[in-house]
Amino acid sequence: MSLPEPLRRRLGSFSRTVFTDSHRTRPQYPGHGADNEIVSSLPLQMSLYFNVYFFPFWWLSTVVMLHLKYPVLSDYYKFILVTIMILASLIEVIRLYLGYMGNLQEKVPELAGFWLLSLLLQLPIILFLLFNEGLKIQPLERAVHIVFALFLTFQVIAAFVTLKRMVNKLATHFRLNEFDQLEEHPVPDFYSLGKESSFHGW
Questions:
Q1: What is the dihedral sign for C-alpha 79, 82, 87, 92?
Q2: Contact between 126 and 149 (Cβ < 8 Å)
Q3: How far is the CA of 113 from the CAs of 87, 153, 157, in angstroms?
Q4: What would you report as the CA-atom Rg of the chain, rounded to the nearest whole angstrom?
Q5: How far is it, in rounded angstroms, from Cα 139 to Cα 103?
Q6: Each residue of 89-118: pLDDT tens digit?
Q7: Whole-angstrom distance, CA of residue 145 vs CA of residue 87
Q8: Chain-centre distance of CA 81, in angstroms?
């Protein structure tokens, strides 16, 4: 299972635009370990590993607390909480899958999708659950939401750093390929061509 190709291209283009280091115009040491460098993040992978085991506990705790306080909630907040639980569950499954694929296999579009889902969707949802007092937040809920928010904050930062390294590695690899192609097929010198034409004209 992988991302649709149009979505992969859009995420790849987004990653090159946002995460490419514009100060690195060319590699300092051409051919020096560019293909063998591992850019996957071990801290990010460990965070994802623990997140996978924490998420069922978070989900169960939140659902139990929602069931207990459901009768005292207003209809407005009942609808919001049920919708949020469904969305957060679906987003988290997709988010963790993209994180694993993107980090372990060094796939930029997947990791960019993971970063965007974490930053733009999942983190705002958890912060809403954590700070909106109209939801009648219980101590257990507050505790699990804080842990989840810490996971997300760390993963957003770690994924950002890892994406910059991955995109810069791809950019370096692309420039090295261009350099190798120029060495194999050198472009004729403009001045030498001018001298040859002058010689034949005489």
A1: positive
A2: yes
A3: 16, 16, 14
A4: 25
A5: 34
A6: 999 999 999 999 999 998 999 999 999 999
A7: 16
A8: 27
- Judged on CB neighbours under 10 Å (0-12, 13-18, 19+), 11 is buried
pLDDT of residue 30: 47
How much of the chain, in percent, has pLDDT values that exceed 90? 59
Q: Which amino acid is at 117?
A: L
pLDDT above 60: residue 162? yes
What's the one-letter identity of residue 150?
A: L
Residue 89: closest CA among 127, 63, 68, 71 = 63
| DSSP annotation of 32 | S
Phi, psi at 103, each rounded to 5°: -80, -50
For the chain, helix, strand, coil in percent to 5 are: 80, 0, 20
DSSP three-state, residue 34: coil
Section 144-172 average pLDDT: 93
Q: Is residue 117 within 8 Å of 95, Cβ to Cβ?
A: yes
Assign 137 a pLDDT band (cuts: 50, 70, 90): very high
Amino acid, single-letter form, for residue 173: H
